[in-house]
Structures are given as C-alpha cells and as structure tokens.
Specification:
Helices cover 13% and strands 43% of the residues. With 253 residues, it is mainly β. It has a 6-stranded antiparallel beta barrel with strand order 1-2-3-7-6-5. A 6-stranded antiparallel barrel has the order 10-11-12-15-14-13. Strand 5 (90-96) and strand 6 form a beta hairpin. The longest helix has 20 residues, at 229-248. It is elongated. Residues 1-7 and 18-30 have low confidence and may be disordered.
Length: 253
C-alpha cells in the first residue's frame, strides 16, 4: 500500500489553534486506505488540550463511516475515568497498524452519538493527512514484572523478575547456576498489571541477545520474536502507564 507521509504536526501550534483549519472538502465516501489502516476495536491514544495542558487518553475504534470516526468515550490512563471532550475540541489521534507502524492525524470532535453506549464522533481526514510517527526504539521502563522462562536447547526453566521492559524486549534477572548462551531461543511468560487493575498474561517467543552484570546482578537481555500486534499494544500501554506513573512520583528512568 502506497502511503503519503508529511512532517509530524506541531502539537503546540495545533492545540493553540494556530494551525490552519482541517480540510473537510475533497472526501467522497469512505477512504479505502483509511479502512485498511483503521479497524473496529483498534486501540487509540487521544491527545487533547485540557486546561492548557496537552494530555493523553485511551479509547477504541467503535465504527467507521465515510469521513467519520466513531470512538468510545476516552478514558484517563491514570484512573480509567471517562473524559469529557466538548464538541469542537481539537484532538490528535494516534494508532498502531498491523505492521507495528505508528500513525497520527489531526481531528475534531464533531458530535456525540447517544446510543446504548455513547460514542464520540470525530472527523476522519483522508489517508494522505496521516503522519507516520518516527520512533528510534521502544520506550524502556524499569519494572519488576513476573516472568516465566523456558529454553529447551539448554533445558532451562525458571521464574524470575524483569529489570526493565519494553514492547520490543526486556532484561531479566538470571538465577544462580542457570546456564544460558546468547543466541538461544525460547519462550517468556509475562504477567502485566495495568494502572486500572487489569491483568494480562502474555506468552512470547524470545531470543537471548546478551548476558551481562549490573550492580553485581546477572541479567539476560531478551528480544521478542515476531510478537503479535495485540501483545505489542499491551506492552506499549504497560510501559506508557509505568512511565507516566514514575513521572508523577518524581522518578526518572
């Protein structure tokens, strides 16, 4: 699929209203490329200006119709409470495609659909107005996540804790007398607990990248092998929430 990219939007200018009005004309029917990139049930991150501060919220795609994107009411990432966005609010919508590429686009709250489950109606621009978010690497956070590992090649099975974790890999404390070589492949089970209290159990294929010491503790660096789109979304969400929580506590990774 040929994709048109443009420079990443200036978020400060966008929320302050300095950017030109979003183009509403020129769209006839639903853009097929948008249909290929967005799908019902897809996780979204919504950025909106609240009291002069750009804040991020989570939501999901509820429906797509012509130049309209219907989403479930955004929830605060911190406490999972619904967030009210009045009609006319300018927002930045971020989502992750099946191939793990991240895109964003500018939008505006057009209305509220009062169905059994209330939905927000957002303007959906043409695909050429989507911006690919350039990211050099996954956000890595310090977190002690329970991990269960199995390496058939060396017949090693053990339970440990992560030292740090990202959506692309993690570092795990290596128990004494555990012998594993770089390059070995196996599986890792992760138990993720979100800020909302939700718990998720993931099982991922992994590969040992290196073995090293930090503060006199033996660690193994692991890379996930072809994780599913859904698993990467959960890992990205976990890391983002942990990073936000640490910042609130005054910590710096």
């Amino acid at each position: 699929m040929k994709t048109c990219y443009k420079k990443q939007p200036d978020k400060a200018a966008f929320f302050s209203g300095k950017r030109s009005q979003i183009m509403y004309n020129g769209i006839i029917g639903m853009n097929r490329k948008c249909m290929e990139m967005l799908s019902i049930g897809m996780d979204l991150t919504i950025e909106a200006d609240k009291s002069g501060i750009a804040k991020k919220f989570k939501s999901k795609v509820a429906d797509l119709h012509e130049q309209k994107l219907f989403i479930y009411y955004p929830l605060s990432i911190a406490d999972n409470k619904p967030v009210f966005l009045p009609v006319g609010s300018k927002v930045m919508v971020n989502f992750t495609c099946e191939n793990s590429d991240v895109y964003s686009f500018e939008s505006e709250v057009m209305g509220v659909q009062k169905n059994t489950v209330p939905l927000l109606e957002l303007f959906l621009p043409e695909e050429k107005f989507f911006s690919r978010v350039q990211r050099r690497e996954y956000v890595r956070v310090y977190a002690a996540v329970r991990a269960t590992l199995n390496f058939p090649e060396s017949s090693q099975k053990f339970t440990s804790l992560t030292s740090d974790i990202s959506a692309g890999g993690c570092a795990v404390t290596l128990p004494p007398d555990t012998e594993i070589e770089p390059g070995e492949s196996g599986t890792i089970g992760l138990s993720l607990q979100m800020e909302s209290g939700e718990q998720f159990q993931l099982t991922l294929l992994c590969k040992v990248i290196r073995i090293f010491q930090k503060n006199k503790i033996d660690l193994i660096s692991l890379k996930y092998i072809e994780p599913s789109h859904a698993d990467q979304q959960l890992l990205t969400r976990f890391c983002f929430e942990k990073q936000l929580s640490d910042r609130k506590k005054g910590l710096r990774n």
